[in-house]
Amino acid sequence: MRRRLLVLCGTSLLLGGACGEDTDSSGQQSSPNSQTAGGGGAKAGLGLAGSLAPIVRAGSSATAGAGTGASTVKAGSGAAGSSAPVAGSSAAGGIGAAGVGAAGNANAAAGSGGEPGANAGNAAAGAGQAAAAGSGGAAGSNAMLPPPPVPAPLQWTRCGSNECSTLKVPLDYAAPTGETIDIAVTRRKATGQQRIGSLLINPGGPGGSAVDFLDDFITYLGGPLNQRFDIVAFDPRGVGHSTPLDCHSTLEALIRADPTPDSDTEWTETDQAATTFAAECGQKHAKLLPHLATPNVARDMDQVRAALGEEQLNYLGFSYGTSIGAFYAELFPKRIRAAVLDGAVDLELSALDISLQQAVGFENSLASYFEWCGLSANNCTWASARNSKPADEFARLSASVDATALTTTGGRSVGPGEFIIGVLAPLYSGEAGYRTISSALRSAESGDGTGLLASADSYLDRRPDGTYGNLQEANAAVNCLDTPAPEASQLRTEAMRFMQASSTFGLATLTGLYVCAHWPVKNTPPPRPKGAGAPPILVVGTTGDPATPYTWAQALASELESGVLLTHDGEGHTAYGRGDSCIDNAVEAYFFEQKVPAENMRCGPSNAGSPMPFWPSLYRFRMR
After folding, report:
1. Are the C-beta atoms of 211 and 35 separated by less than 8 Å?
2. pLDDT at residue 295 above 50?
3. Distance, CA of 189 to CA of 308 (rounded, Å)
4. Distance between CA atoms of 110 and 457, rounded to whole angstroms?
5. Sheet holding 229-234: strands in order across?
6. Higher pLDDT, 430 or 257
7. Cα 259 to Cα 210: distance, rounded to the nearest angstrom
């Protein structure tokens, strides 16, 4: 496989081969798969020199919470057996999220308590699914819903080195025999003789394409796991090759709007750009939008499990993928064999808390980059020309771009929005991205924003032909349902608090919430999962993680009744496959032997090897 240093989710490149008619393992004729191969979406990348280098930042400390707390009210949470619904608010334009439901233990199963049946997967599919009544799809309600139809076994076609299929699932689990949507599924079959079963993976997002992620996963970190497991990826509803959202015709205008407004005019322009972006999604996808919350993704994953013929789930979720796993544990705790949640999201936090803590996390990572600059005269030559400190020179350069956009070799420009994203994106990979930042800033010092623009384009899923994937709207659709934003009028009142917490990224994360403030579907946040009755669930956190701060991993491990925390001391986003053999060995022993690490086990960068490529989609910085 071609080595890709930087890979973004949502590209149109699919698995390196054609998906045509083929015969599946049962000898039945499969229908042509709609996923196409070799689309032109392979990124030119950032030229991440050193992006595969090990993460070796020692002694980093946990990201501070910046004085934020868990403020989300868990609507309707109560004793198991409670079924009082919470009425969902109507959405603008008549898009309802009615009946968003009550909390409680989500596994009141008809006849089985949510346990898998004696036969493999299919008999268990949908048995005892519990959900919030209504289209919003809130999780964790024990209000009984009719079980969805048992899915037929997946019919596979060849697509490159993998097999591809499509699964029909209910659009609305409250009406399981009604309209359906497509879920794209792909797998790489186990290479060894001692197969355990299927391992489902998700790279995060929200909005990241697991289908596009599979090849890189296998190449860079899935080898040991692929010996014992079929590695299976599915694109969540609304994402990539599944039934997608497609409402980003105004995305470039949204990005061009100044994310750090310093005048009434700029605040108004930023607000209006978000309003326009959200309105297009509401106009084009009124039927789909209310059903994209993460609990429905977890239900889809259970349908995939059943269609695979698996009695229990093995799951590895990165970043936002940890939310999918946590909700699955709430809805189907007894159907889990093993689940690893790496780069965990704290599901107790409000949208404001998430944005503020991410801003602080990236500010801390930028400070670590400036420290790295001081380790060698060659690390940050962009800052040495004026003999100033890197942080001071960066502030000067940022202010200059805010006043006058940079030019690029392709004729486009780099304003404040592209500048912030262009610096932020490589920080996801810790030290592996530092040289990319230095190269881009060195060019920016001479007025050339090409490197920064390449970074921003990759992060935003902009393809070489100028088109975009649907990562941004899918990201908004899920975030706006899972953690609704405050009213738009409240956001500006938070400006000073965010700027004081993070001078570089604070205001950008705050204005990024305008999209959700204007989102056409309103939802009551799903009750937060506890996973009562699940086997031990391994939660992995990295102390210097900017996108999902370490405190989030600590919180999720505590919130899940069977959560077990595994810590990587280092920089960058997520830990498995990033070069720490201690982490890798612990995760693999857990999957292979169901051996649970000691509580609060810590690993460090001294065991570094070769990390996987940078996937900035793992948990999206809530810029836009």
Report:
1. yes
2. yes
3. 12
4. 48
5. 157-159, 162-170, 180-188, 229-234, 197-202, 313-318, 336-342, 537-544, 563-571, 601-603
6. 257
7. 29
Residues 6+ apart with CB under 8 A from 18: 36, 37, 38, 159, 160
| Alpha helices (H) along 308-387 | 320-331, 351-373, 381-384
Task: For residue 184, list its beta bridge partners.
Answer: 166
Is residue 289 left, alpha or beta, with left meaning phi > 0 and alpha meaning psi from -120 to 50? alpha
| Amino acid, res. 250 | T
Residue 619's nearest CA partner among 415, 483, 485, 518 is: 483
Sorted by sequence, the CB contacts under 8 Å of residue 526 that are 6+ apart come out as 132, 137, 138, 139, 140, 293, 294, 295, 327, 482
* DSSP per-residue letters across 480-521: HHHSPPPPHHHHGGGHHHHHHH-TTTHHHHHHTTHHHHT-S-
Beta-carbon-side half-sphere exposure of residue 592 (alpha carbons within 13 Å)? 13
In the prediction, which pLDDT does 549 show?
95
- Cβ neighbors of 436 (< 8 A, separation 6 or more) are 46, 47, 48, 49, 50, 51, 426, 451, 455
The whole-angstrom separation of Cα 207 and Cα 293 is 12
**Cα 50 versus chain centre, distance:** 24
**Which pLDDT belongs to residue 430?**
85
Q: What are the tens digits of pLDDT across the range 166-194?
A: 999 999 999 999 999 999 999 999 999 99
In the structure encoding, which two tokens stand for residue 14, read together?
A: 């699919």
* SS3 (DSSP) at 605: helix
Token pair in block for residue 96: 């309802």
Find the mean pLDDT for residues 14-33.
32
One-letter amino acid for residue 484 of the chain: P
Q: Regarding beta strands 180-188 and 229-234, do their DSSP bridges make them parallel or antiparallel, or are they unpaired?
A: antiparallel
- Rounded to an integer, what distance in angstroms lies between the CA atom of residue 81 and that of residue 443? 61
Q: Distance between CA atoms of 542 and 225, rounded to whole angstroms?
A: 21
Query: Looking at residue 221, what is its pLDDT?
Result: 77
Q: What positions carry a catalytic annotation?
A: 319, 545, 573
Tell me the two tokens of residue 573: 């986003």
427's CB contacts (< 8 A; 6+ apart) are 362, 365, 366, 369, 433, 437, 546
How many other C-beta atoms lie within 10 A of the C-beta of residue 378? 10
CB 183 within 8 A of CB 237: yes
Mean pLDDT, residues 149-161: 96
Residue 566 DSSP one-character state: E
- Provide the residue ranges of all domains of the chain, joining segments of one domain with +: 1-20+31-38+81-88+95-338+349-373+380-526+613-624
- Taking the complete model, does pTM exceed 0.85, yes or no? no
Model confidence band, residue 530 (pLDDT cutoffs 50, 70, 90): very high
Location of structure tokens 């899918």: 474
